[in-house]
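Re-run with default settings, no changes from the original entry. Doing this only to confirm the output is reproducible before filing.
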Amino acid sequence: MAGLVKRGKIYYCRLQHGGRETWVSTHQTAERPARKAADRIESLFLREKATKQLTGQLLEVVKQLASGQLSVAECAGPLAAIEAVARQEALKVVDDLIPAPPLSASELWERYLETKPELKPSTLETKLQRFRKFMEWAGDRDMSSLSETDCRAFLRSLGDIKSHTHNNYLSELSSIWKALPMLKNPWGEHLRQRLEVESKKPFTIEQVRELLAFCRKNNERFWHTAILISYYTGLRLKDVVMLDRSQVTPDGFLDLIPAKTERTQKRVRIPIRPELAAELAGIELKSLKYFFPEEVETYTRSRGILTVRFGRLLKKAGMSGTGYGFHSLRHTFITEALKAGISLKHVQAVVGHTSAELTEGTYYHGEKNADLTAYPAL
C-alpha cells in the first residue's frame, strides 16, 4: 500500500520496493486529489513490477527451451500460466484507463437491499433514516472512493450529538459497506467515540403518583396505563407497547419473552398486582391481539417517536431533567422492590437480568437491607 505524506505544501506518494523507500510527488496540495493521484502512481508501480516478473518468467522458459531442459510440449503449461497472469494485468490496466462510473449513495443503498439483509422492518427503517441523513450530506460523492476523511467530515456535520448517537451512525453505515465486499470500508472502529455513560435516575413513588395524576387530568390514557405497567413490572417501553393479550395468564401473571432476551428466549413471569389488573381490564378493546394497537403501529414506524412523546410529557409535568426517561420506571421498580425486602434473586428473575450484580449494582438506588415488607402500591 502506498502512503501519503505531506512535505511543505505538496503531498508525496511513499512506495516500498526491494527494501527501499521511494517518494513520488503527486503535484497536489489538497488531500483528496493527492490521494487519487497516489492511487494512480501506486497502480503504475504495481503494473511495472508485474511486467518485470512476467518478463523474467518468460525469459526463464525460453532459456530452458534453448538449453533442452524443456521440450516444446512441456513449455505449454508454463506459457499458459504466464498468459493468464498477463491477461489479468492487462485487464487491470484497462480498469485504470477506463475507471468504473461513480457509485452514488442512492445506488449504494439499492445494492445493499439486494443483499437481502435479515433485519426487522423497524430496524431497517431506522437504518434508512440514518442513511438518508448521510445521502443529503454525500451529494454526488463517489461511494466507491469514500475516504476516512470523508467519514470524519460527515460525523462532524451531525453537530453536537451524544456519543452513542455518533456510534450508532458509524455502525449503521459500516454495516452497509461490510455487506458489499467489493467496496473498501472506510468506517473504521477507531472512529468511535468513548461513550458518555448517563445513569438513569429512578422516579420516587411521589413522582410516579404525580405523573399518574397529570395523565388523568390531561386524558393521557395510554401513558397512564404504561406508567402503571412499568411501575408494577419493571418492563421496558417496547415490551409495554407490544403487550399482547395472550401474555396475561389465567392465574394472574404476565408471561413473556422481553425484546432484550429474544435471542436467548429467556422468559419472565411477573405477578399482576390488583391495581394493575383493574387498569388492564379497563382498556378499550381495539384489537384482539394487542392492548395498544395504535402505539404498536407508531413504534413499528419509528421507535423514537414514543420516547420523544414521553419526554414532552415529563416536561409538561415539570419532571424533565438529565437522567429521567421511561426507563427510569424500571429503576424505580427494582429500587422499590429491593427496598421492600423482596429477594434479589426474585427481582432478578422478574426483570430478566442475567446477573444479580447488574440488578443490584446498576439499577438499585437505595439503602441495602432496608426492612420493608412489600412492594408499595400507589
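Residues 28 and 327 are 53 Å apart (CA to CA). The first helix runs from residue 31 to 66.
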